[in-house]
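Appendix B, example 12.
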Amino acid sequence: MLKYKNSKAYYLYLLAKKDYSLQELIDKAISKGYEDDDISESISELTKKNFINDTRYCQNIIEHYKNYKGPLWIKQKLISKKIPNTIINQELSKYNLIPSQNLKKKILNKYKIKNFIDLEMSTKQKIVSFLSRSGYNNPFDIISTWEDSDQSKQ
């Protein structure tokens, strides 16, 4: 027996805690055994009331991660949340996802370096790996930009 009498009540229960994409909600209701007609009716009503909004959900995720994760990592996160690719590409194109000064400071602290001038090769490789894991597809360009910035300060 289902805990909630219909999928709308189940969706409201879920959405009271956090946002979900449309597809995540559909998948959850199907796995709980709700009827397709009930699901589509509930989805339609909640979408009209703006309780379900993939664009808003996508923007919130981008805003949350934009200062310390790269565009590739963020895109993978959005895909894992089952947000449609058209919305992902549209919303990511609105943001200039370049590494922030906070990320630079984090790297300086993490690797205990004062600047990016004359880095040891092993440290540079570690930084490149870190930036790649964080979703930046051009870590060498980022490091060279930071090197230029540090040289111009001296």
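Residues 96 and 151 are 24 Å apart (CA to CA). The chain has nine helices and no strands.
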